[in-house]
Write a structure and sequence with these properties.
Layout (H helix, E strand, L loop, with lengths): L5 E17 L4 E7 L5 E6 L1 E4 L6 E4 L5 E4 L3 E10 L4 E9 L4 E7 L4 E7 L6
Antiparallel strand pairs: 1-2, 1-3, 1-10, 3-4, 4-5, 5-7, 6-7, 7-8, 8-9, 9-10
Length: 122
C-alpha cells in the first residue's frame, strides 16, 4: 500500500482538519475544524478531499521517503495540487493507530493536517 499509496480506492473519514503556519520557529495552528462529513479518498496516485475547495492532489514521486521515530513513522511523497503547485503529501502512522495526512507547502510556509478517524472512533 505505501509504495504507491494504494491501488484500490480507500475512503478515510476526517475527524479534525487543521491549517498550520510555520513562523520560522514552530508550527502555529491557524484554524481547527471538526468536519461532520469530510473524507480523504486515496486512489492509486490521486488524492481527493471533499472539502470546500474540493482539493485534489497527484503524487509524482515513485516511492516515499520513510522516517521512523519513537512515536510514529512518516512516509513522504512529492505531489502537486489541482493548480499545479508543488507540495508534499505526508502520511504519519502513530504507534497508537492514529493516522494523520498532511499536505505541506514549503513555498507558503503552511500545512494542512487531517486527523483520520480510527476504527474505534466510529
Amino acid at each position: 500500500m505505501l509504495s504507491g499509496v494504494c491501488y484500490s480506492q480507500n475512503f478515510n473519514k476526517v475527524n479534525i482538519s487543521i491549517l498550520l503556519h510555520w513562523n520560522n520557529t514552530e508550527w502555529v495552528e491557524v484554524v481547527r475544524k471538526h468536519p461532520e462529513d469530510m473524507y480523504i479518498i486515496l486512489n492509486d496516485k490521486d488524492i481527493v478531499i471533499n472539502n470546500a475547495n474540493e482539493s485534489h492532489y497527484k503524487i509524482i514521486s515513485s516511492s516515499p521517503e520513510k522516517k521512523t521515530y519513537s512515536t510514529h513513522t512518516c512516509y513522504t511523497w512529492a505531489c502537486i495540487d489541482k493548480k499545479g503547485i508543488s507540495c508534499k503529501f505526508i502520511m504519519k502512522i502513530f504507534n497508537d493507530g492514529t493516522w494523520i495526512f498532511c499536505f505541506l507547502y514549503d513555498s507558503y510556509n503552511q500545512m494542512y493536517e487531517y486527523i483520520i478517524e480510527k476504527d474505534g472512533d466510529k
